[in-house]
């Protein structure tokens, strides 16, 4: 039988074109678990929330990074995607944010354990899908993104197993999670440039805004426990830089297509989640 205790009591321990911003279908990441109570529907799912890209990528600019050189490769595709992302952030989410706030700040969110478990399950499905796609490498340059050190599936599996051991019921992936995973598979086959935008969004945002939000959730419902999801096995700054370099190298070969992908599918802003 699942534990009825709060979790804190159950454990001791980009080009000349200005990109449009869109994610189709709706990304399930941070879909419903951390919204203010007035925005919760009877089934616990949110009727409205911040744009998932804004939440997912919150504070990308805040991530501690080694000082970068001024070489052209360091001002490549990744930096241009980041500049677009900052237009979707509020000042609460990033110092360089330009967007007017349309929801309460993260500090005022009220996370629930049930919602957080849904988020972890959906996240694992998304990361499983991304890792499978780059492993199979239907597009040859996907292979460049194998074994980056940013992979999260194994870490999430450990976290979900821990919750299960505490007596909590692990839910099945949600419909938004399944839809987004299928969408990634479809993009990887039909539109590699758009797929790589999603790859960047998911992995890089988790290392920045994802960590910040994870810390807030841990403070509220996990008794400050740090999940494996938020741990990396080597220096994170170097892992990120290695992937930035690879992304820029790929972009130098497919630059025009990548920026068209940004405009079509890489970074779309959404105002609400059903």
UniProtKB/TrEMBL annotation:
* Keywords linked to the UniProt accession: Chloroplast, Heme, Iron, Metal-binding, Oxidoreductase, Photosynthesis, Plastid, Transit peptide
Single GO cellular component annotation? chloroplast
Q: Write out the ranges of the annotated region (Disordered).
A: 1-20
Q: Which InterPro entries does the entry mention?
A: Haem_Oase (IPR002051), Haem_Oase-like (IPR016053), Haem_Oase-like_multi-hlx (IPR016084), Haem_Oase_decyc_pln (IPR016951)
The subcellular localization recorded is: Plastid, Chloroplast
Look up and give the organism this protein is from.
Answer: Elaeis guineensis var. tenera
Q: What is the lineage of its organism?
A: Eukaryota, Viridiplantae, Streptophyta, Embryophyta, Tracheophyta
Q: Which CDD domains does the record cross-reference, listed alphabetically?
A: HemeO (cd19165)
Q: What is this protein called?
A: heme oxygenase (biliverdin-producing)
By its UniProt entry, which Pfam families does this protein fall under? Heme_oxygenase (PF01126)
Q: Care to name a GO molecular-function term for this sequence? A: heme oxygenase (decyclizing) activity
What biological-process GO terms show up in the record?
Answer: heme oxidation; photosynthesis; phytochromobilin biosynthetic process
Q: Which family does it belong to?
A: Belongs to the heme oxygenase family.
Q: Which domain of life is it from?
A: Eukaryota
Q: Which residues form a coiled coil?
A: none
- PANTHER family assigned: HEME OXYGENASE 1, CHLOROPLASTIC-RELATED (PTHR35703:SF2)
The Enzyme Commission number assigned here is 1.14.14.18
Where composition is biased (Polar residues), the residues are: 1-11
